[in-house]
Design a protein that fits this description.
The protein contains 6 helices and no strands. By secondary structure, the protein is an all-alpha fold. The protein starts with a helix and ends in a 17-residue tail after the last helix. The relative contact order is 0.10.
Length: about 150
């Protein structure tokens, strides 16, 4: 396994994002709601970076940590809604999370549920097969190549 400068930079960024997020969550200020939304954005970014790290170091992760693959892929779909909610919380006074705002999170939940049933609930060996054959997200022409689970 060859670790490059980019891999080290990704690890550093991952741990920095995760260590900064609690300060925004537990900060006592008037715009605490905005800070909490920003902390969720930082955590979502960190989880996406963890997904990128697992694929960059695939030879190591597939043998020892196959359960870490695709952990952060759904969280990419949160970036847009979180930035929208963060901007909305900064520009509107007394803005709180409403049930209507859950509609913005619908793509995330659909993708997360899809990955949970098609990948995360499998055992380690099945996950290795799915990763090696690129069968987690099959397109229309690859339906015949899917692994029978």
């Amino acid at each position: 396994m060859k670790v490059t400068f980019i891999d080290i930079a990704l690890f550093v960024l991952f741990f920095q994002l995760l260590s900064i997020a609690p300060f925004f969550i537990f900060q006592k200020r008037s715009n605490n709601y905005s800070n909490q939304i920003f902390a969720v954005f930082l955590i979502a970014k960190a989880l996406c970076i963890s997904n990128f790290i697992s694929f960059r170091l695939k030879e190591y992760f597939i043998d020892f940590f196959p359960h870490l693959f695709f952990i952060g892929s759904s969280f990419t779909l949160l970036w847009g809604p979180i930035i929208y909610l963060y901007t909305k919380s900064l520009t509107h006074k007394n803005n709180k999370f409403k049930n209507w705002d859950l509609l913005h999170l619908l793509p995330f939940f659909i993708h997360f549920i899809y990955l949970t049933f098609n990948f995360h609930l499998n055992n380690a060996e099945t996950k290795r097969i799915l990763i090696n054959t690129n069968s987690t997200f099959p397109n229309g022409s690859d339906k015949d190549k899917r692994v029978a689970l």
